[in-house]
Amino acid sequence: MPTMHASSSEVYTIDAQGLDTRHLNQAVRKSVNNGHREIELLNVTGQRYIAAGLQGDLQIDIHGTPGNDIGAFMDGPTIRVHGNAQDGCGNTMNSGEIVVHGDVGDITGLSARGGRIFVRGNAGYRTGVHMKEFQGSRPIIVIGGSAGDYLGEYMAGGVVLLLGLGLEGGVHQADFVGTGMHGGVIYLRGEVRGIGREVAILDTTEEDRRFIEGLLKDYTKHFNVGVKDVGEGSFKKLIPVSSRPYGTLYTY
Amino acid sequence: MKSHLLPDYKVTIDRETCTVCRGCVIQCTFNVYSFNKEKNRIDIDANKCVDCQRCITFCPENSITVAPTPIQYKQNASWDRENIRNIVKQAEAGGILLTGMGCDKPDFTFFDRLLLNASQVTNPSIDPIREPMELRTYLGSKPSLVNLTSTGESWTDISLASPQLQVETPIIFSAMSFGSVNLNVQEALARTAVSSGTYFNVGEGGLNPRLNKYADHLVLQVASGRFGVHKKYLDAGAAIEIKIGQGAKPGIGGHLPGEKVTEEVSATRMIPKGTDAISPAPHHDIYSIEDLSQLISVIKEATDYSKPVIVKIAAVHNSAAIASGIVRAGADIIAIDGMRGSTGAAPQVIRDNVGIPIEMAIASVDSRLNQEGIRNRVSLIAGGGIRSSSDVVKAIALGADACYIATAALIAMGCTVCQKCYTGKCPWGITTMDPVISRRLNPDIAAKRVENLIRAWSLEIKEMLGGMGINSVESLRGNRHQLRGVGLTERELEILGIRMVGS
Ligand code: SF4
Ligand code: SF4
């Protein structure tokens, strides 16, 4: 267990310039162990694994471009990325929030079991792959723009909300959406090029719409945009048709 | 559809001695026996028998015989019993054939063709009863240079020392997840790990709170399903193993069917009850050595470089090159699982046809890492088909630092290798989640039996080492001069890095 010192209300600033991944993360962990609760990282240029495994009520503001696996295994903290994030954002995270004021790379929220990820812009391939949900904790990913192929692949739980803002022609590039999905839900605005055979597209219910509205409100707050900026048009929902996709695969 | 399957076994009860106590009716979890009230006798449905020997062991009158049935398919060396049976089963059900435990085919065992050396006259042998004999070893990355700095009066070691796993005997319990085996089994193994100074790998099913108190002797897995993986989990164990592959089913994923995802399994794996727990074939974030390096690094970051990271791979054709990449990716330990490695459930076609034997894999990996000058950066654990203390000694002489065992430990508890683990009905209470059948496995007795096995093997290892004139297991590692091969081709000998007997 890290030693807990009296919590400090000041923002602790770390200049990441010239620090490699290991030293930057060491500096972050040290400041947390010293009781800092608000941390700001400046000049981040691709250093990986930032905030990996951090726990508790922390606020981390990242200026620049963090590298892969930001917030992996994280349990509690809030991270704001003032720029783009790369692959594996929120990998296997348990709880907390990651807000990205730009785009994210591939496998965002991979295997997450809780927490929320808000992306202002677009996401790469395989967003939300194998997310789960467990005992009331339910991971949520909100993507402002569009997402690549295999969105929600193998999803076993959780929510992905794809706003489709700025989408040209109303069709996302994403194909094979929900392949292998056996839990959770994807809300989509706009068409996708294709879906997995384990899923079906349905109309949203009143309850879905209320839930989406709540997330839209959070999106406007996080990115300081107006309600009208989150666009018009209705959402469809994509859900698995079986929680046992491979039930008849074997001979006993 | 009428089944065309012929029975595998003939079950007979000696009616002279049988007292109709009905013990067999209770013991057989495959419902072979039923009590016939009218005739006051036990009826037998031999079609269902899997030859697990449970009824025989527990029949108080020794009245039961189970033997291969004399009923044969027409003799044909090509269309043998197994091939015909498999086709009939598939014609009737249309799915992938499942099996349990490891590959049972002959021909893939090289250990039996290796012979150990012993000292005669020169370099006298050592008597382990009277003289010190070290089985302890340390697993982890060793520095290439020892870097000392002087403070004037003393020297301090400033080499970047990596965390090490200290094992008192080179035998570690390989991954057996909660879900594949029940908690009684896991607890027995964890306890033995503590009392024998070794480790138990809890597999990819998460860490049940009942095992928390043994955490210092547990290896925790991060597999493609990421079940139960969270910060506290990573903090808990003595080492973390990234599971890439498994000897019994290289290259394929697995899944725990929804009906086995009970309340407790769901809580430990951290997934909803009743849904299939799918472990995809690849990790979604690993498509290259560089990606693997990232997962190793992020785990080290999340645990502040406090514990070694193991990468487990199945032994396959390119293991040596892959292992070289894994060392460079930053793993501290590589576990290699040979094709005879066991499993709770695997497609039979994969189990029996994919991968390579551990003897070849460990020898070629050890040679390759030595050639590249990076053998010190990693420890090697060999697993998959280790059946005896001599297999352990031979694996170490071929280049391993230690061995993983699993089936041997289960046999010590009661398993008779009936290969029906995937049915969830294990009559010995091992690979079943059924709360009533699980009670057949008493963790105290099971722990004692496994502890005895480890003690016995450790004593035997000391005897073999002493005979070779070696007083520490670390001096045996990769010491292939102590091995000779019999009945092997030139090329096989070359890959194993050993000479022919008599030369
Ligand atoms: S399945 Fe096992 S317990 Fe049942 S009859 Fe056969 S050997 Fe006996
Ligand atoms: S664990 Fe049980 S089911 Fe599996 S082989 Fe052993 S006795 Fe049979």
Task: Provide a count of the helices of chain A.
Answer: 2
Total number of distinct structural domains of chain A: 2
What's the total count of β strands of chain A?
A: 12
Oligomer: heterodimer
Largest interface: A-B, 48 and 40 residues
Q: Strand fraction band of chain A?
A: 25-35%
Instruction: Please identify the top-level CATH class of the largest domain in chain A.
Output: Mainly Beta
Radius of gyration of chain B: 24 Å
Largest sheet of chain A: 11 strands, mixed
* Secondary-structure element pattern of chain A, one letter each: EHEEEEEEEEEHEE
Query: Level of helix content of chain B?
Result: 25-40%
CATH superfamily of the largest domain in chain A: Glutamate synthase, alpha subunit, C-terminal domain
- Please give the order of strands in the largest beta sheet of chain A: 1-2-3-4-5-6-7-8-9-11-10
Q: What fraction of residues of chain B sit in β-strands?
A: 15-25%
Mean pLDDT of chain B: 94
Can you describe what's shown?
The complex is a heterodimer of chains A (252) and B (503). By secondary structure, chain A is of the alpha/beta class. Chain A contains 2 helices and 12 strands. Chain A has helices at 21-33, 206-223; strands at 8-15, 36-45, 59-65, 75-82, 95-100, 116-119, 140-143, 156-162, 183-188, 199-203, 236-240, 250-251. An 11-stranded mixed beta sheet of chain A has the order 1-2-3-4-5-6-7-8-9-11-10, sandwiched between helices. In chain A, β1 (8-15), α1 (21-33) and β2 (36-45) form a beta-alpha-beta unit. Chain B is an alpha/beta fold. Chain B folds into 2 domains: 9-95, 2-Layer Sandwich (Alpha-Beta Plaits), CATH 3.30.70.20; 137-145 and 156-500, Alpha-Beta Barrel (TIM Barrel), CATH 3.20.20.70. Chain B has an 8-stranded parallel beta sheet with strand order 11-21-20-18-17-14-13-12. In chain B, strands 6-22-23 form a 3-stranded mixed beta sheet, with helices on one face. Chain B has a two-stranded antiparallel sheet with strand order 1-4. The longest helix of chain B has 26 residues, at 443-468. Chain B is globular, with a radius of gyration of 24 Å. The chains are: A alpha/beta (252), B alpha/beta (503). β12 (250-251) of chain A pairs parallel with β5 (96-99) of chain B, so a sheet runs across the interface. The complex binds iron/sulfur cluster (2 copies). One iron/sulfur cluster (SF4) is lined by residues 11, 27-28, 30, 32, 49-55, 66, 427 of chain B.
